[in-house]
Specification:
- The chain is of the alpha+beta class.
- It folds into 3 domains: 8-98 and 234-317, no CATH class; 110-229; 339-534, Pseudouridine synthase, CATH 3.30.2350.
- It has 12 helices and 19 strands.
- It has helices at 12-15, 34-49, 54-58, 107-125, 128-167, 172-232, 245-249, 265-275, 311-317, 367-374, 400-411, 485-491, and strands at residues 8-9, 61-70, 73-80, 234-236, 242-244, 279-288, 302-303, 339-342, 346-351, 381-382, 391-397, 416-424, 431-435, 438-440, 448-450, 459-468, 471-478, 515-523, 530-534.
- Helix 4 (107-125) runs antiparallel to helix 6 and helix 5 (128-167) packs antiparallel against helix 6.
- It starts with 7 loop residues before the first strand and ends in a 5-residue tail after the last strand.
- The model has no long low-confidence stretch (mean pLDDT 93).
């Protein structure tokens, strides 16, 4: 019998009839195995008993489950990302790979030192003396400008008066003396103000130096602390080999681990399994609580592992396991491509779902490459793009001139596009407009986030076609063409709050993404004829 703590055994009755997975989960694109769904159900039941965590969990937390075998027993491990209830060690969950919050570790005292520096910076920035200097400097600069400008006006009027006196025959000597005095007086006024302002600036510079010195010390301490932390996150793989986070991220584009690396649920689960000789069978991560403000997370939905923090770590930790192939790379392009429209300048095709529009990181042929073979005498250039999982009308140009002209139509929003989608949920409005600006999530590419400060404008109009069995068939009419625009606008709580069926990034897994580019309309940039290209919806 397995007596390892944190191992939760399934009963024979509840797993009867469920086939064990032959290959381990590919963590960045997967449909949760039935055993993972069962494990998640157990974990949710446990969380429902922890009323002391209700407030924190309601704010949102990623959870993970790892189905494992120990001898002849099948069970699961549970983990949370980050920390929970100000701690890393809770009896139901696997422990952290390295517990930053351990009171006898190096992190708390060093963090306290950095916090003390933060307090010093804040205290100096808000000190009455500094604020008084800033106020005096601003007031002195303004008063100097007023006095100098006023004296210049006086000098100008005096010059006019002297010119009149000269014409009347007045003594030139006294007029010259007056002019020289006023010029010298202007220099004295400027010098007096400059001396006063320089004195204030000098005092403010002393305060700035304190702040900058503390900030430099904080940066040095923070960097050293991060490096020490990352060196203590020593990650195992299935072969029993180990690497710390600095080694794992050394050859990645970023070169250094991002903050929080190693604290996600998936690495914790695998680490505990390896240490305790438990065989990993399948893994899944799901969200609990309400969605973050910018990202899209729905309570109870399963999500792929994040890219920036987890991809390099999991690529290392999964070595030695038989892992499912990336299903996206397993996609093959049909030899038959349906051409919907063609002339000397343009070709439009019916893009199948699961195919790249243009060449990407995946080692599979794209639609653009296939078309280049079909039209070897032309330069095939994509005019707009559809997500890999989206099907429907896709437009290509046959020359650079045609490409430039078509892109101008898109940029000026003179192209009408209609999409069909099925949403997981009932939309109560018959039609409307969604205006949510979008920006790339740098920590989880290619996910997009809603960001009302830095995001690019994204506008979608919609019209409900049918409501049936908890689903909504809908038409989308995008004004703009941002990455994942329709998917985010459908999923986001401030949008329709109903993900597109089959959206593995923002919703739940299905047989496909139920999003289809049904038609596109524009004035042909060469012939000036109206063109409408359609593709029947396959679902």
């Amino acid at each position: 019998m397995c007596n390892i703590s944190r191992f939760h055994k399934f009963s024979l009755d509840e797993i009867k009839g469920i086939t064990l997975p032959e290959l381990f989960t590919f963590p960045f694109y997967y449909e949760p195995h039935p055993l993972c769904v069962l494990a998640a159900k157990h974990l949710r039941s446990y969380l429902n008993t922890r009323h002391d965590w209700n407030k924190e969990l309601s704010q949102g937390k990623m959870m993970g489950v790892l189905v494992v075998r120990h001898d002849e027993e099948i069970g699961f491990l549970a983990a949370f990302s980050g920390n929970l209830a100000h701690g890393n060690n809770h009896e139901y969950f696997v422990p952290a790979v390295y517990d930053l919050l351990s009171l006898d570790g190096f992190f708390p005292p060093e963090e306290a030192e950095i916090s003390e520096i933060n307090h010093k910076i804040k205290a100096e920035e808000n000190s009455p003396h500094r604020q008084s200097l800033i106020s005096q400097l601003s007031e002195a600069s303004a008063n100097a400008m007023v006095e100098i400008d006023a004296y210049r006006e006086l000098m100008q009027q005096s010059k006019i008066n002297r010119d009149n006196l000269r014409r009347e025959g007045a003594d030139a000597t006294s007029l010259i003396a007056e002019s020289q005095f006023q010029k010298a007086e202007l220099r004295r006024i400027r010098s007096r103000w400059n001396t006063h302002i320089d004195s204030l600036k000098s005092q403010l510079t002393e305060s700035d130096k304190k702040i900058n010195d503390w900030k430099a010390e904080r940066k040095q301490r923070s960097q050293a602390l991060q490096q020490r932390i990352f060196r203590n996150f020593v990650m195992l793989n299935a072969r029993g080999e180990s690497r710390d986070l600095c080694e794992i991220f050394e050859n990645t584009p970023q070169g250094l681990p991002p903050a929080g690396a190693g604290e996600c649920a998936a690495p914790k689960l695998l680490q505990y399994a390896y240490i305790n000789n438990l065989k990993p069978l399948a893994m899944a991560e799901f969200w609990v609580g309400r969605s973050p403000k910018e990202e899209i997370r729905h309570d109870g939905h399963f999500y792929p592992s994040c890219k920036a923090k987890c991809e390099p770590i999991l690529n290392w930790m999964l070595q030695g396991l038989n892992v499912e192939p990336n299903p996206l790379e397993a996609t093959t392009l049909s030899t038959s491509i349906e051409v919907l429209y063609e002339d000397k300048w343009i070709v439009a095709v019916n893009k199948p779902e699961g195919i790249l529009s243009v060449p990407g990181k995946l080692a599979i042929e794209s639609l653009q490459e296939r078309l280049q073979h079909l039209f070897p005498l032309d330069e095939i250039l994509v005019v707009h793009r559809l997500d890999m999982a989206t099907s429907g009308v896709l437009l290509f140009a046959k020359s650079h001139d045609a490409h430039k002209a078509l892109q101008a139509l898109f940029e000026s929003r003179k192209v009408k596009k209609q999409y069909v989608a099925i949403l997981d949920g009932i939309i109560r409005f018959d039609n409307g407009k969604i205006d949510l600006p979008l920006i790339l999530n740098p920590n989880d590419r290619p996910r997009q986030m809603v960001n009302k400060t830095h995001g690019k404008q994204a506008i979608t109009h919609f019209e409900v076609i049918e409501r049936k069995n908890g689903k909504t068939r809908i038409h989308f009419f995008p004004e703009t063409g941002r990455t994942h625009q329709l998917r985010v606008h459908a999923s986001h709580p401030e949008g329709l709050n109903a993900p597109i069926k089959g959206d593995t990034l923002y919703g739940t897994h299905a047989s496909r993404l139920y999003l289809h580019a049904q038609s596109i309309e524009f004035t042909h940039p060469i012939t000036q004829q109206e063109v409408k290209i359609t593709s029947p919806c396959p679902f």
